[in-house]
Amino acid sequence: MPKGTPKDVTAKLTAAVRESLADPTVQKRLVELGQDIPPLEQQTPEALAAHHKAEIEKWWPIIKAANIKGE
User: Fold this and answer.
1) Virtual CA dihedral for 41, 21, 49, 59, nearest 10 degrees?
2) Backbone angles phi, psi at 68, to 5 degrees
3) How far apart are CA 14 and CA 60, in angstroms?
4) pLDDT tens digit sequence for 5-37
5) Using an 8 Å Cβ cutoff, are 17 and 43 in contact?
């Protein structure tokens, strides 16, 4: 969601995502696609932001060292 999205909107969308991720059919399809489903306590905007930050910190030096450019 864009920065500044109202907290009530964020909460509503988070609840919808959590509900979707709890659906066995959705879970099965995501697993088929090779996706990991985070545990319920990690299905929050804060946890997603922390994961995103950690991934950037992990991969950015490798991308930079390999001189990989976006297209």
Assistant:
1) 110
2) -80, 130
3) 28
4) 999 999 999 999 999 999 999 999 999 999 999
5) yes
Whole-number Å distance between alpha carbons of 28 and 35: 10
Residue 21: CB atoms within 10 A of its CB come to 15
The C-alpha atoms of residue 71 and residue 69 are separated, in whole angstroms, by 6
Structure tokens at 41: 């306590």
Q: What are the CA-CA distances from residue 11 to residues 15, 16, 27 (Å)?
A: 6, 9, 21
Among candidate residues 25, 54, 51, 53, the one with its CA nearest the CA of residue 38:
51
Per-residue pLDDT tens over the stretch 30-41: 999 999 999 999
Residue 3's region, left for phi above 0, alpha for psi from -120 to 50, else beta, is beta
